[in-house]
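Lab meeting prep.
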Amino acid sequence: MFEGFANVWTPLVEVRRVGRAPLRVMLAGEALVLFRHAEGVSALLDRCPHRGAALSLGQVCADGTIECPFHGWRFDRTGANVQVPLDPGARREHLDR
């Protein structure tokens, strides 16, 4: 069922509820993380592809990326993995949005 939501606007929460910290929300049984950055607000699946940690337990960094709380992987507003701190040459994953 979640696949059907991928390409349409779906109201989740009032935008004012998305502050400096990541916000976990549920949609159609799927956990999402909302986070604020310079371009607005993004929604990604609430799990890091590395070890499945909830990104909502991490932090939003000054550059607008969201950082996984376990190993520090960072993802931009599109879900692209932009940093792997302990292995900069690692193959990077892209999160579904």
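Slide two material, second protein:
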Amino acid sequence: PSAINWEVIATLFSLMLICRAFDRCNLLSSLAEAALGTFKTPRKLGFLMIAATGVFSMFVTNDVALLTFVPLTMKMAKASRKDPFLLIILETMSANLFSALTPIGNPQNLYLYSHFSIDPLQFFSMMIPFCIGGAVLLICINLLFNKGETYQVQRQQFELFDRRLLVGASVSFVIIILSVLHVV
């Protein structure tokens, strides 16, 4: 029991509860329909979701980014009746790739950065070429394999339920993100 990191488990559990609260408020479905209505092809939507997952992972860890974006991707897949398999794989690759760019993006970087007292400029200069190369590969994979016709999704009104739950879940989400960043 002493080897278990209860703080990480509590954080991940809290994020799962928050994702469930967002789902109950209809936030994920509304965001999914808005994204499908705006980015009308699998390729364009792929670029959006890959980039968003990657950027988010640089600041809140790859795991938290995936816990946030994969449920949204699943909602999009349900609304568009498309298989989410490729997009989830690309999001996972993006989260792992871009989380490596910052010291707080993943636990391994945080450990190495603090344990060896690496200079920030040296850290970024080591990681940027790796991330640029990975980003080029992700773009190529998305262009080559993320194909399909324009989404035929009925535009629905952006409708949220239970605003108190949404506010509570949003505040909790921000607090958890700040705690991961050790701001709170």
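Talking points for slide two:
The first helix runs from residue 6 to 24.
Residues 112 and 118 are 8 Å apart (CA to CA).
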